Amino acid sequence: MNKINIKLLKLLIENKGDYVSGEKISQELGVSRTTIWKHINKLRELGYQIDSLTRKGYSLIKSPQGMVAENIYLGLDTEVFGKEIRVYPSLDSTNTKAKELAADDYPTGTVIITEEQQQGKGRRGRGWYSPPGTGLWFSVLLRPDIAPNKAPFLTIISALAVSEGIKKVASSLVPVIKWPNDVLLAGKKVCGILSELNADLGMIKYAVTGIGINVNQTSFPAEIADIATSLKIEAGNEIDRTLLVQEIIVSFERYYLEMEAGHYDKLLGLWKKQLNIIGEQVIIYANEGITYEGNVLDVSSQGELIIKDKNGEINKFWAGDVSLRRKK
Predict the structure, then answer these.
(1) Domain holding 159: CATH number?
(2) In this predicted model, what pLDDT tens digit does every residue of 32-70 receive, in sequence order?
(3) Phi-psi region of 171 (alpha: psi -120 to 50; beta: other; left: phi over 0)
(4) Residue positions forming the annotated binding site for biotin
(5) CA 183 – CA 179 distance, rounded (Å)
(6) Potential cystine with 49: which of 58, 61, 229, 299 (Cβ 3.0-4.6 Å)?
(7) Which residues carry a binding-site annotation?
């Protein structure tokens, strides 16, 4: 993001409906009027409708409808997250782009957003349906100061942040977290989360948490129509994607700082309250066609599912090892 663009846009927003003179902008930003004109044109290229009148200055008429980094940034009240925001018209995968930025030493809290994902990834290599301009497809680059065995908490806190963000923009909705990394509405999937690590023994170099949310879709391909939904379908109205991502980023940072402070029990407790699986009879589909049946007793301190089978044997399962379906 360009710092002059941000400062200029902030000034125009603060004076929306009025004209701000080139002289005032020049004084406030400490740049020449020629520089101001260049950045006004850059904002116009991003989709901002800005009027200009001789001897009156500039006036912001309308902001763009799509995802724009400057718009998102100006609505954030965060310490770390969202200080770097990259928005792309199309990407293969936001997680892949986040890893590239990690190699270039981008900081914790860098947010990568795309209007369309060509090869969105879900857990265990599954694809993620990511049509253009309707959903929220983004990743957050993290450099957490936690032990690698606490890495499951990255998915835990991101699910909490998504749930909280949904409730902020659509108060009538009741999100439920499906262990380990989905968010549901009315029993259907509205969000998937994928966290990936680059770690050495005893240290996480960086992590990437990818979040895909069905926001304003009104229909889905036949193969997922029975299991997928969107915020618009459930709320009955269009959802502001910019506001949604802002709310999620703010919540994500708060939970992230709690995690780094070691408040794991608190975070686990909040997560468990929203899980839809504790006390249920389930079938666990593990690797190589092995299945387990039993009752979900609890979730461990590491986020593992604790299952008691019909013989009384207790087993623990984590997301990377199993797929889960409710027993019919």
Answers:
(1) 3.30.930.10
(2) 999 999 999 999 998 999 999 998 999 999 988 889 999
(3) alpha
(4) 93-95, 117, 189
(5) 9
(6) 61
(7) 93-95, 117, 189
